[in-house]
Amino acid sequence: MWRSPSPNLPRTRARTLLRTGNVEKFFQKSKIRYGVKTASLKAILFELEKRIGELEEYVNDPIIVYCKAGSRSQVACEILATHGFTKVHNMLGGIIAWIEAGYPIYTTYHHVTVNVEGKHVITQIEPLLLYQTGCMSCGCQLCAQDQTYQNNNTPSNVTVTTVEQDENHKETLVTYKVNDITYEATITQTLLWSHRKENAKANITAKFISTEITAEDISLQFYSLSYKVRHEEYNLTLLTTLTLLDSETYNSSFTIVNCAPAGKSELTSLELVKFSSSVTLSQQYAILGKVAKEVSEAYKKSEDETFKQLAKGYRIIEKEAEDLSKIVEKQLQDYDKEILESRAIFIDSECSVAASTICSAVITGMGAIACIWIASPCGMWYPVCYAACLVAWAAASGAFCTWLGNTLCGEETTVKQLGCGAACEVICLGCPGGNIACIMCSPLCEQVCEQIF
Amino acid sequence: MDPPYGAIVFLAVLSILVAVLSVRQTRQTGNKIHYVGVIVGCLMLSIFALALLGQALLAFILLVVGGLLCIAMLPRVMAVQKREMDKQLTKAIKEIDLSEPLRLKDFLRWKGWLKLAHRWGALKTAGIYSILGAIILAGITYTALRAFNMMNVWLVAGYTATATIVIFILFYRQISKTLEKPDKSV
Asked: Do the Cβ atoms of B40 and A370 come within 8 Å?
């Protein structure tokens, strides 16, 4: 985990600063050489003069200032110098140069880029350090003043009917009525392949399912491969969704691998993997195994004992991904096609936490786009409608995702968990800034949750 | 424990609204990209239905697919929204004489806010608008929570605070962009 560069700064304040999208614009007094921060302040560059008082006690101490590449920290240095700081140093090249020099960076969040050149797989693992500002999907619609649309749409008669069901096939019809018009969506699921293996220590199940959703004139088809291992020492869940380009090629693949070894530390890790080359489905799993191996070795080399514990989880992912690759290659040849764009996420955390987190991030993102239409009839109150919709959507989806995550992982849900899930989403809005925003937001969530429930 | 029916029904209603309003916007603008709303709405409904039917895994898969779809479609939807907004902005600003005196009734339309922004600047105007929006939202939230016997001051405060930040950002962006237009009448 990227240790907060400002351990003495209250988390709420740190979060506010992070939310402004300028995490890279911080300056810091620290013994950075060893990755140990004795005192620090993170600030937006233009705030520096206003907050200079917070550093008053360090006016005669050596201060190292750094940013992403070294230019903004130079400006910060000049500001500090004009305010009487005597030993100010700019870290040339910024944090990028620090990383390139091979100095330690403590993080369990990484971007992994995979390049396949012939038989060679080249992986590049980079720390996920910088706050990436999420563009608010504002929609920004100044509706015409004469908009007189009145919304009397009260949905009724929502029904879900199983039209057809046998061992390998299921067809479900969802209907609902709005303004006397009936809308329908048909979901057809076909089990194309399944695999089961049991031994004294583990229970392995795998399924490959085709799903087709038809609504009005629109049809969407995709495949999904689920691979679950219930081992006495760990639980591993792998889920891949594949969208089709044509009969020979997959357009995209998205894989979530969650591994929770028994007795693990409370540290959560997350690796975002992006393939720069097209690969087949079986190759994808083999490569994910190699990526997991490299990540595992990186954690193993860490000087920090808690980080070393993470290596175990990635060794498990390595082994299971390689096994799955062989299974797909042998048993699922018809579907072992080329994938144009592959992405994956490795999460080392409890199943329900991982599932709820992914659900929240995705569903809040969907809310951001959905609220554009919901707010469209609001005229001059568009921003109010959009914000109200977005936050209400987040609250409801927080409760829903908490329940879905627990259900998916076979866990019970308590009323408190539901309430906390909803409250957290209201505060964090699905962490639009990314994972660092989530890390910073979680403690605040917990505090608020404790006060409410 | 039972599923959170309240949250699911609420999200289902919003999803249906999304589908219906996107169809309406397609008809108004003639741009078929708004049909994405229909897909999003239907996907959400299917997700809730599957989750309630005990198909949590499939619901989760659909959710991920929906998320991928939204990510893929977001730039196009945003581009269309931006184009439509620019058209409306140009029309709105042309109809307003910013030098006219401010009247209270103007604040019920964009006219008043644009005039105010012209005089006081976008930042202050966005602040006033956000406070007004916050008061309205806090009032609605308070009333709704009281009605459902779920009143909690932290919930009202949290909801209002988060929404106010979003309102401020949206309104500030809109209003400052409008005032930057070179063809505004002064």
From this structure: yes
Look up residue A424 and give its two tokens.
């957290």
Residue B155 CA to its chain's centroid (Å): 20
Same domain, B61 and B134: no
Cross-chain residue pair A403–B91, CB shorter than 8 Å: no
- Residue A395: closest C-alpha in chain B: B7
CB B17 within 8 A of CB A374: yes
Q: Which residue, chain included where needed, has tokens 């500002």?
A: A133
Confidence of residue A107 (pLDDT cuts 50, 70, 90): low
Mapped onto helix, strand or coil, the DSSP state of residue A10 is coil
Q: Are residues B55 and B101 in the same domain?
A: no
Statement to judge: residues B35 and B55 lie in one domain: yes
Q: Which of B32, B61, B86 is the last residue of a domain?
A: B86
Of A118, A318, A339, A290, give the one whose Cα is nearest residue A234.
A318
Q: Which domain holds residue B53?
A: 1-86
Mutate to test the interface with B, among A400, A427, A453 (most CBs of B within 10 A): A400
Q: What does the block give as tokens for A208? A: 């490959």
CA distance B185 to B90: 11
State whether residue A144 sits within 8 Å of chain B by CB: yes
**Is residue A178 less than 8 Å (CB to CB) from chain B?**
yes
Instruction: Please give the C-alpha separations between residue A99 and each of A128, B153, B180, in angstroms, as whole numbers.
Output: 12, 46, 41
Q: Which residue in A179, A361, A376 is closest to B25 by CB distance?
A: A376
Q: Is A175 on the interface with B (CB under 8 A)?
A: no
Q: Specify which residues A190 forms β-bridges with.
A: A169, A210
Q: How far apart, in whole angstroms, are the C-alpha atoms of residue B31 and residue B78?
A: 13
Separation of CA B16 from chain center: 16
- Do residues B104 and B57 both lie within one domain? no
What pLDDT sits at residue B1?
Answer: 64
Contact: A138, B108; criterion CB under 8 Å: no
Q: How far apart are CA B70 and CA B39, in angstroms?
A: 10
Number of structural domains (chain B) is 2
From B51, which residue of chain A is nearest by alpha-carbon distance?
A404
Q: For residue B15, which residues of chain A lie inside 8 Å, CB to CB?
A: 370
Q: How confident is the model at residue A150 (pLDDT cuts 50, 70, 90)?
A: very low
Confirm if A445 and A423 have CB atoms less than 8 A apart.
Answer: yes
Q: ipTM score of the complex?
A: 0.83
- How do the pLDDT tens digits run along chain B, 186 residues long? 678 888 888 889 989 998 999 888 888 888 888 888 888 888 889 888 888 888 888 888 888 888 878 877 877 887 777 677 666 666 767 777 777 777 777 777 777 787 888 888 889 989 998 999 889 888 887 887 776 666 677 777 877 887 888 888 888 887 787 777 554 443
> What residues in A contact B37, CB-CB < 8 Å?
370, 373
Does the beta-carbon distance from B77 to A369 stay under 8 Å? yes
Delineate the domains of chain A, giving CATH numbers in brackets.
11-106 (3.40.250.10), 156-349 (no CATH), 352-452 (no CATH)
Compute chain A's Rg from CA coordinates.
Answer: 25
* Residue A170 identity: K
Residue B165 and residue B147 share a domain: yes
Asked if A241 lies within 8 A of B173 by C-beta distance, the reply is: no
The last residue of a domain, from among B55, B86, B117: B86
